[in-house]
From TrEMBL:
Keyword Signal assigned: yes
Record GO biological process: carbohydrate metabolic process
Reactions listed under catalytic activity: Hydrolysis of (1->3)-beta-D-glucosidic linkages in (1->3)-beta-D-glucans
Keyword field contains Disulfide bond: no
Protein's organism: Dichanthelium oligosanthes
Official protein name in the record: glucan endo-1,3-beta-D-glucosidase
Catalytic class of the enzyme: hydrolase
UniProt KW keywords: Glycosidase, Hydrolase, Signal
Amino acid sequence: MALRLVLAAAFAVLAPALAAASAPALGINYGQVADNLPPPQAAAVLLRALNASKVKLYDADSRVLTAFAGSGADFTVGVPDRLVPRLAADPSAASAWVHANILPHVPATSITAVTVGNEVLTGTDATMLRSLLPAMEALHVALAACNLTSRVAVTTAHSLAVLSSSFPPSSAAFRHDVLPYMSPLLGFLAKTGAPFLVNAYPYFAYKADPDRVDLSYVLFEPNAGVSDAATGLRYDNMLHAQVDAVRAAICKANYGKAVEIRVSETGWPSQGDEDEAGATPENAARYNGNLMRLVAEGKGTPAAPGEPLQVYVFALFNEDQKPGPASERHYGLFQPDGTPAYDVGVKAPTISGRKGSGSGSGNGTSGGAGLVVAQGPGGADGVGPGTGYYTVSAAASKVTAICTP
């Protein structure tokens, strides 16, 4: 009952707050790494029920973008990792990608950002590292040719592993091996007005050292807090400390407030393997409920209290085909059939739909409800025919000099 009251209160606060211009809307990660997913039309119904109006994909699935036309939801779409070198090497590929994946949907579907790859700078592929910024620049040029740069930002999501340390926040800096790539990338973000995206998971810190990490501190619950002696700032939750660590690193790279920071992924698993401490329905309910209340209140971090933090929750639904430990398949608020993964304190709408028969293909017949989520923390790029990757070669020969968004 206590969990139900916590999350019911969070959602009760969430609905009116989302209407206020001062507070950012709740964001949801939405992907397709499962074989039992409902169609995008069902996802749209659940999204409206939860008053979440920011959606982040790891691809540019035409079925999803078409289903959400006229919905008012703002989409961040993704370019898969495997396409990054090609966009960097061939400017016509970037133009083709825009024509195939953006132009058919705007303005009916609001697309506000494109992420190029996922956590590329913490990978080991030298070609990918060299290609990331050129690919982003090529995509920006392609969007500019279609008069879309005022509407669609180009960015990329980073793991916290780009930092050499994260606590105290004021001591944080980008790793020396990452900095040669990060500095010009920050320059690009500052010049174009695009946000810096970070995937931040306090759960990972708790899982690694449950005896020393205060569970209340990572779950946004009352605790003694920790202080940053250099700044005098006090932190009562780990997520804010992680974001301000990124902020400090950006400042040390001489960009500071010129770049907005958004949390592109955060969440807590409701189940895990035996060695995955803290992965329980109770802790997942506490983390996500308190997180949603924090977002609804429009709070900033201690280092930037006047800047409401935009957060994308990971995730709406459990995905049965994600690789890795059991926790990877249990980050969802809901099961694919629309039933709660744990007591979230709200009644999900009953939706009739079609479940997928393949890897997120959305074909086959069954009943279901809910959103489909993206591949989880540390995962690879989106998979399946909806990524946009397969359309580039065919579209390249059809690109014209005139764009009609």
